[in-house]
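Review the following:
>
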Amino acid sequence: MDIQLLTSGITFGLSLGSIFFLMTIGLSLCFGLMRVISLDQLLYYSVGGYITYSVSLLIGNLWLGVLAGMAVGGILGFAVERLVFMRIYERDITFSMITSFGILIGGVGVIKFFWGLVPRPVPVPIDSQIDILGTDIPVYRLVVVAIALLVYGGIWLFLNRTIIGKAIRAGIEDVEHVEGLGINVYRLFSITFIMAGALSGLAGGLHAPLIMVDPQMGLEVLAFAFMIVIIGGLGSIKGTLISSFLVGQVVSLGSLVYAPLAQMAPFVLMLLILLLKPTGLYGSPLLKR
């Protein structure tokens, strides 16, 4: 494998890992705080992609489309939390997984109704390339990586430097103690769902120019989302970031070595990590809600 191909593969893996991080961070946060498996985050990822497509087609500006996708994703996340999850927080965790999967499937049907079955292309907003080690690398992929790292930094500051963020962190450890301090935990739940939905919408909007938006795009990444959250450790922000980049590199470099490895290698990676550390890279034992 020559250096140009390796450089291109690593860059592709970094950009793919960045999308994975934005897509799964909400799922990880929702499980860490509320002990619910929110597969509906992948619906907001799909909706974010389609909103970005529609807005960019209408006004010719992808970045405004991405912002619109984030806004719609956050609104949908809040609506679903209020109308559905509020009623099932006390149910078993598998009930939330089945319910959220039903929301995802139903949402795919709604997407097909409004946008049809045909995949839609989204133009790349930045056509320029930069030379790295003799390889032309699309600047847009580097922008995606930079945005993911900025989002991680923003989430870290929010969780560690704000009162609401510290309350969410405390809730991840033990919700009952937070309730004992007189904090409305259900308000924290709503804030978390809005953040998660907006970030999933951001992932879909940024990914749209790299792929064609498709009604099944959320279902197609379902297995990868599960793997990333499990590898990183449920509820761990740092673990989700690292596992996203690991899986992105495994998929990218594996496809360069042997195409079927792109689908098989992440599962092997997950099994190896779970054998060594059953709670994931940065996970902790399941704590009481």
